[in-house]
Amino acid sequence: MSSNRSTDVIVVGGGVIGCAIAYHLAREGVRVDVIERGEIGGEASGAAAGMLAPLAEVEDAGPFQELCVVSLRMFPALVAMLREETGVDVEYLPSGILRVALTDEEEQRLRDLAGCANGLPQHWLSPDDLRSLEPGLSPDVRGGLYSPEERQVNADRLTQAFARAAAMHGATLRRNLRVSGLLTGNGRVTGVRMPNGDLAAGHVVLAAGPWTGRIAALLGADLPVFPVRGQMLALPSKSAPRHIVWGSAGYLVPKANGLVFAGATVEKVGFRRRTTAAGLRSLAEAASTLAPRLGAFAPVDSWAGLRPGSADGLPLLGPLPGWEGVSVATGHYRNGILLSPITGRLIARSIIDGSPDGTMASFSPARFLAHT
Question: Which stretches within 32-138 are classed as H helix?
Fold first, then answer.
């Protein structure tokens, strides 16, 4: 079935990345349609712990960590703007992060990281100092690194706030629609094909998380993007830490609703989004290793999400080589929530300005795809 419907930009994917892109475009007066195969935020974005942790996730002070820190610093103004526009409280909390060492090797590695990274301080704390901040930590903790400026949000609320704000600025959110094909002509992507008809556009953004590779394959592009399952537990708030606690086997995130999120597994099992007894057991054990008193409480909830991994662990941002009118925004892996503000801004500006920002060079899909 054909259609003469058209818009300026189509964003394929209604997760936090797609909604952030739509928000930044719509604020600039661009007509944008978001096409989501399920519900907005229904995949990895809604399952994430919501940590804004550029130093915990990325130890190398290179372009990726710099991108993460820039995005972290966008949150205060963004959170205030989204709340003013939508009334949504995204639960932006100054939890800080404690990265704790339980072995000699971990202690030495964390000691070596103490100092300042991309303007964010990290302080080495002795075992006594750590337990003064968090009395419930394991007696085996040998010390830790305190990063006071890292934060957290409610990942689902952030995604919904982006979506609602985008819609308020004129974006159209199309739920429960699968993209079955891409419209092309003369080396250019001109829209998408869906069960209810075609939709033409001046530009298409592929931001469908781990499904992005399947859509790009319709253009003959082999993007090394794949799903990485992450399972999570929610524990009661009794004996909850006040800070995010990060160990080698997992992390604890105290949430605004009084629960503690314990995560997360890292599993390459294809597109199987389900929890397993073994995975949840490993999370419970990791939680009790970090904070033994948590081991006395039964989980109140569990879930899993499929993160978009990439071959080199870095996101893919920018134009798809060999084609005009199409960009990619995927591969954020465990940093999609953190990187949503900067990704939304960079992709939106590259479309509006007609060329990618130099900041995106290190993350171009061209590093994997030869121009043909």
Answer: 44-47, 54-57, 63-86, 104-113, 127-133
Q: Are 328 and 235 in contact (CB under 8 A)?
A: no
205 pLDDT tier (thresholds 50, 70, 90) = very high
What is the residue extent of each domain of the chain? Answer: 6-51+156-224+311-367, 94-150+227-309
What pTM does this model have? 0.96
Residue with tokens 């010390």, as numbered in its chain? 143
Mean pLDDT in the chain? 95
CATH topology of domain 94-150+227-309: D-Amino Acid Oxidase; Chain A, domain 2 (3.30.9)
Q: How confident is the model at residue 3 (pLDDT cuts 50, 70, 90)?
A: low
CA-angle at 64, arms to 286 and 11, nearest 5°: 95
Q: Are 30 and 178 contacting, i.e. CB atoms less than 8 angstroms apart?
A: no
In sequence order, the β-bridge partners of residue 183 are 191
In tens, the pLDDT along 292-337 reads 999 888 999 999 999 999 999 999 999 999 999 999 999 999 999 9
Q: 6-51+156-224+311-367: which CATH architecture?
A: 3-Layer(bba) Sandwich (3.50)
- Asked if 233 and 299 touch (Cβ cutoff 8 Å), the reply is yes
Closest C-alpha among 27, 31, 40, 32 to residue 169 = 27
Residue 41 C-alpha from the chain's centroid = 11
